[in-house]
């Protein structure tokens, strides 16, 4: 029995050593993407990344991020002037064993032309999304599964959609209370918004599961 126990322990130890070797720490490199051409829309789709979106000072698009050989961004502009940003995970299953990369490597900062873009959508998991001092002609859609959604001084010409699961939705929107029609769905949390409000030239849709909603309006 003792021999069998020793053998099983040896096998388990060897397996752990193999997995630890497979899940080696990645090497991340700081990168910047710049684009000064026309952009009509932006779509950001990432996982396990904090996303900060703001207006650029020079009217161009600037993206600051970190890449590794196994986790990197695919950034492209289509022929119809649509910018897409997506996270590519080029990993074996053993690479998912172990800890996540350091926090500094899991941040993406996106700067876009203020007022010149028609629509913006951004989604992430397990991290926050924040949009600051940003105006879009048509719509803004932000969602996080496992993080907070924060808007500070955000203005969408027609519609704004905010969604969070296991996180809060907070911030300040440009415009008055009467400027927005509102729909708010909340589960397991508190909200300062009504479930429904009609009227207004803009629409605000909020969906929060297991978190709180606190949205203010500023003229």
From TrEMBL:
The keyword Endoplasmic reticulum does not apply. Keywords: Signal. Residues 1-20 form the signal peptide. It holds the Pfam family DUF4097. The keyword NAD does not apply. Residues 42-218 form the DUF4097 domain. It comes from the Bacteria. InterPro entries: Toastrack_DUF4097. This is DUF4097 family beta strand repeat protein. The lineage of its organism: Bacteria, Bacillati, Bacillota, Clostridia, Eubacteriales.
